[in-house]
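Fill in residues.
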C-alpha cells in the first residue's frame, strides 16, 4: 500500500497560480502511475493529469492542457502539479492517486491508493 499526502491548496483569484504537492510513502516501488483528480461539489471525480513514474510520460485533461504541469522528484518521492492561469471552474478538491500498473490512467477505478485531498478555490 502507498500512502499519499497532498498539500499546497488554497484560495486564489482567477489568473493566479498554485502548486500542489503529493508526497508518497510506503511501497512506492510498486507505483507506476501517479495521477491528480479533482472533485467539485455534486460532481464525480474528474481526471486532471498523470505521470508515469518510470518513463516520465505525462498526460493531461484537455481542460487543463497548457495551463497545468505535472512533474516528479524521485529523490523526494513527490509529485507536483503546477497550476497557472487558474479559472473559477478549476475550483474543486484535488486528490493525488497511485496506480500499481499501467492502464487507462484517466479512469479513477485504476488507482488503488488515494490521498485525503486539498481544496483549491478560484475566485472571479
Amino acid at each position: 500500500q502507498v500512502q499519499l499526502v497532498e498539500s499546497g491548496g488554497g484560495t486564489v483569484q482567477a489568473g493566479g497560480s498554485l502548486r500542489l504537492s503529493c508526497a508518497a510513502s510506503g511501497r512506492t516501488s510498486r507505483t507506476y502511475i501517479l495521477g491528480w483528480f479533482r472533485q467539485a461539489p455534486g460532481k464525480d471525480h474528474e481526471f486532471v493529469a498523470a505521470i508515469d513514474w518510470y518513463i516520465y510520460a505525462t498526460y493531461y485533461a484537455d481542460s487543463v492542457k497548457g495551463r497545468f504541469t505535472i512533474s516528479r522528484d524521485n529523490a523526494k518521492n513527490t509529485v507536483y502539479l503546477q497550476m497557472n492561469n487558474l479559472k473559477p471552474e478549476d475550483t474543486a478538491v484535488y486528490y493525488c492517486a497511485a496506480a500499481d500498473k499501467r492502464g487507462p490512467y484517466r479512469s479513477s477505478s485504476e488507482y488503488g491508493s488515494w490521498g485525503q485531498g486539498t481544496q483549491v478555490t478560484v475566485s472571479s
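The longest strand covers residues 18-26.
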